[in-house]
Amino acid sequence: MAPAYAIPRLLARNGLRFTDIALWEIHEAFAAQVLCNVAALQSASFRRDKAGVDADLGNVPWERSTRSGGSGRARPSVSAPPARASCRRR
Predict the structure, then answer these.
(1) Quick one: which of 3, 29, 54, 58 is 20 to 30 A from 80 by CA?
(2) What are the domain boundaries of the chain?
């Protein structure tokens, strides 16, 4: 749930709304985690009571979210063993 706490604080601190960001990727292992974070982000009561942000940030624009499967599909996972992370295509 770290993104649900960090994102509203970051946006509010910089005077931004969700729609000011060009591309969204919440890097979590499972789709359910992403959905849970987005539900929290869009909840005014969660943002106010849990994240401590009173600003109206709008709604997360789904049309600006990555659909390519995240960074794991583009390159080895951040947590991949060094041998796997160092493999390259020929």
Answers:
(1) 3
(2) 2-72
